[in-house]
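User: Teach me something about this protein's shape.
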Amino acid sequence: MCSDSPDKHTDSSRATLEDKNGTGVYPITEQYAAECGYTVSVLPLRGQMELRASYFSCHTDNKDDDLFTFKFQLIANNGGNEVIYTFNETCTPALPWSYREVTCEENYMEVSVSSDVSCPSGMESDDWDAAVETSYKAATSDWQVMFQRMEQALVPMNLSEAQRQGYIFDLTTGRLVFRTPYGQPDSFTTEVNGVPVEVVHATLFSRQSWVVLMVDLVTACSIHDGSYDDGYIMWETPEVPFLLVSGLQDVQVNIGVNGELLEQPVAEERGYTVERHNTTVQISIPYNAEGGYRKSYVLDGELLESYVFHLYLEQILAGEDHIDTRLRLQRTLSTPPLLRPVFTEDRTAQEELVFTVYLGDVPADVELAAVELNGHKFPVPFPNASSFTITKADHPNNTHSYTLTVPFNSPVVVQQFSSEDAVMQHRLDINYTLTVLPENELHYHPTSVMAVTDVSPPVFAAVCSESGISFKLDHRPFDYLWYITIGSDLLTPELAAQHGYIMSNDSQSLLLDVPLYTNGYKYKDITLKGFLGTFEILVRDHETSEVRSSTVKTCPFTSTELIMCSTDGKMTVVADLSLAAKSGLIPARANLVDKYCGPKEADDTRALFSFPFNSCGSLVKLGKEYVTYENEIIFSKKSRSWKNPGYSQVTERVVIQCTYPLAGLHRLFSAYMFESDTVGVGRIIHSANSSQDVLGPTVEPLKVLQTPVPTTRLAVRPGYRPPVQLIKVSSYLKDLSKKG
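Assistant: First, the predicted structure itself:
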């Protein structure tokens, strides 16, 4: 038996034979292959097409039954283009020929006998006598054949008629060959020790003068289907399938796969076993043993597999006449359909915020074609622009795996926020589309993964500086659940620009610099040495607007001069009295309109006053839309100057004011009560001597909850003391009226 396995991956292919005498090319159809001694198998997993040829096959060059040469072509159709591959094979039998050689192939039976022995043995005497009688009566000089079937009369036919029916007879240098496909009309099936056997019993005869030459040709092959039990593929054959020998003396059995015998230690190592039960030979092979191959397919939506073995069995039968018969058998055995489920494993690391799903145990003949993520289908490989990836890894056991990664914040991930538990649920429904090659059968493998992440409201990092407070927030994927406010106002670039904040926002973080004295600050512990400024940022629920968290930062600051107008009707002023001090006035001896209202604290150049609006001689000025509370810091002293020994009257007046919009007052100032929605806008107006000129620089107020006024110093002409801060009340009132 000569064989070859061309490795050609093609859409389709066919084989042809070239006649040994160059008379033509013959396509190997199924019928032609069975008649001429060829077996063609396609091994899709290996990407091979296997051709096995009998030594006595048609169109094979035979030299002395020892050297056999044949040529064949493989015509491959690849994408509509035919490509021809030509192969030449020369084979020599590894062992000397036995008297009788029986071949049981997948698609035909063949027997050859040596022409040196004239009296074959093995036939029962009654059958032989009947054959002799029939052949003697019907014999002519031409060779004829008659087929014996149980309890049927023998009907001779000439060889040309037998050939038309699919039987092949050939005479070589030293052997007579008979070959027949399975299932011929003259074959019959019987059971030998409970094993089904197909038999063709042909007697070839010719009459030469008064002598009748007869050759008995019997071929018998086990047609056992094989079975599968507890992980083993099993197959049976009788020790002697039919009347091949008489008086059986010995049987040798050798086993192999893919047309090659295995040495006994190798077969045992692989788990192959050969056992005799009475007169039956039983072969057992582990379903996944080395030497076979597996094949995937899809049935009713399930991914199944079968393990296939090309069994090669050789039996040597020795009869009492010491004439050996060698039986060679090729059978394809397979397991029944077995479930071959692939599996998925959730390897997600929560801290990485990425789904990682492992699809494993994918057979070598199955490929991943597409992945559906929450109803969105994507071909494999994924587009380069996608945020998710799929990677393939091959494994030594002829399987491969795929690892899918999808970020939690990918648009394909379904997210659901649980406000009660303050967690975000991320769900990913996956449906893998697997295709079985080469048939391109589709199998779908669905799975779902879920992840939960903590989505507590974001918190800013805050840093103090000399000029204000800086806030930083690193973005998280779930920050869209919240929004940020300063008080009740949504923090936007427009609001930041309006209030004088410095804001930058990119994909990584939000930075907010809040200069001192801008809208939103609250102040406390005011002394001449400094004060504490507090700024708060609120984080609110996007759906309910409830405050979920806040970042409050309090920092120490210093200032030469300031005025603060509270919402509860109190004015706090740190006044810079350095010019008056140079004239010999002592800040600690300054007072308000009420001379009994002196400073709470004073040093060489400054004085701190803090008092309710309804005290210390404050004046109330009521307009149509605003109310202003005014008082004065007054220096009044008679003293002897070291330059002028006489007495002189020196007066330093500093006007201090707090202005509130009437619309924001819940209770108008009366003797004992004051309540405002907002802090007032304050100003300090310095007046040297009796000068009424109080012009100075202008700063527009920021319309927020609390706005202390920063001090601004300008160069002035000699003899003139400008105000530290001047607010254009008219502009401020006009702006507020527009809002109202």
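Now, about its shape. The chain has a mean pLDDT of 81. The chain has five domains: 2-91, 118-169+181-340, 341-454, 461-557, 562-739. If you'd like, I can walk through any region in more detail.
User: That's plenty for now, thanks!
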